[in-house]
Amino acid sequence: MSNPKTHTISINNLAIGYTSKTVAKNINFSCHSGELCAIIGVNGVGKSTLLRTLGNLQPELSGSITIKGENLADYSSPKLAQELSVVLTEQPSSKNLTVEELIALGRQPYTNWIGTLSPSDKTLIQDSLAAFLLNDLRHNKCHELSDGQLQRVLIARAMAQDTPLILLDEPTTHLDLYHKVQILKLLQQLAHNEQKTILFTTHEIDLAIQLCDKILILDCAENPFGEPCELIEQKHFEHLFPSEMVVFDAKTGSFKVNK
Ligand SMILES: Nc1ncnc2c1ncn2[C@@H]1O[C@H](COP(=O)(O)OP(=O)(O)OP(=O)(O)O)[C@@H](O)[C@H]1O
């Protein structure tokens, strides 16, 4: 019998960085379908570099990345576009499109060479609009949207791309607390209801502890990975920041200012 919890992505002894320097090494973890996973760590530790490496946007320095058991490097671009979607922090160059048109671009890996949308493509676009609460904004130009609305559109486009794995770089930057929680809950629903594997970088550690199934802590040493409660029990959050400024309260699972 096949294991229903397949490893969508597995990372073994990965080192990441640039020709000029290694940013992080000794990274090991696996994410399953149906899981929402966060990558956290202090500024400059390598969260975005890791996400770009996993998204095949820059090469790894050493180690291996496998998606559904196959090496990332062995995927052709069209095949990878059906396995993996990436939502980056940069603003899209296509902001003159309407919300619906931008989300429809998510179907490009599946459409024919003139980009004709099939009935099932159209259904997925409508489902993505509805899931991310965008029906009322469907005809608005993307340059007319607030940061939070645009973030929902970019994630809805990834949902329309319908890949098993979705990678997002800081999807809640610039959002107020309500909209941060809204985005993270929508991502959680997408992972749990549609059995997607969703991996995102964030500085919202308290929210990640409450909403994520697993967390990777990039700490320049062990890079622990596990369920939030395991990481709390093992006291990994205590060492994240210098304790003269902020301390971790294991009872509430949140950080407090050291007054
Ligand atoms: N193109 C590049 N060439 C060389 N070094 C780079 C390049 N881009 C980033 N770096 C360096 O790599 C390190 C990791 O950067 P990265 O942006 O991945 O960190 P981060 O954890 O996402 O940071 P933040 O929390 O501030 O967004 C930093 O020291 C950064 O200066």
From TrEMBL:
Q: Where is the ABC transporter domain?
A: 9-245
Q: Please name the CDD domains in this protein's record.
A: ABC_Iron-Siderophores_B12_Hemin (cd03214)
Q: Which UniProt keywords apply?
A: ATP-binding, Cell membrane, Ion transport, Iron, Iron transport, Membrane, Nucleotide-binding, Transport
Give the InterPro entries listed for this entry: AAA+_ATPase (IPR003593), ABC_transporter-like_ATP-bd (IPR003439), P-loop_NTPase (IPR027417), Siderophore_ABC-ATPase (IPR051535)
Write out the GO biological process terms.
iron ion transport
Please tell me whether the keyword Membrane is annotated for this protein.
Answer: yes
Q: Which PANTHER family match?
A: IRON(3+)-HYDROXAMATE IMPORT ATP-BINDING PROTEIN FHUC, PETROBACTIN IMPORT ATP-BINDING PROTEIN YCLP
Query: Could you state a single Gene Ontology molecular function term?
Result: ATP binding
Pfam families linked to this entry:
ABC_tran
Q: Which GO CC terms are listed, alphabetically?
A: plasma membrane
Q: What is its main location?
A: membrane
Task: Output the PROSITE patterns linked to this UniProt entry.
Answer: ABC_TRANSPORTER_2
What name is this protein filed under?
Answer: ABC transporter ATP-binding protein
Spell out the SUPFAM superfamilies in the cross-references: P-loop containing nucleoside triphosphate hydrolases
Q: Does the keyword Cell inner membrane apply?
A: no
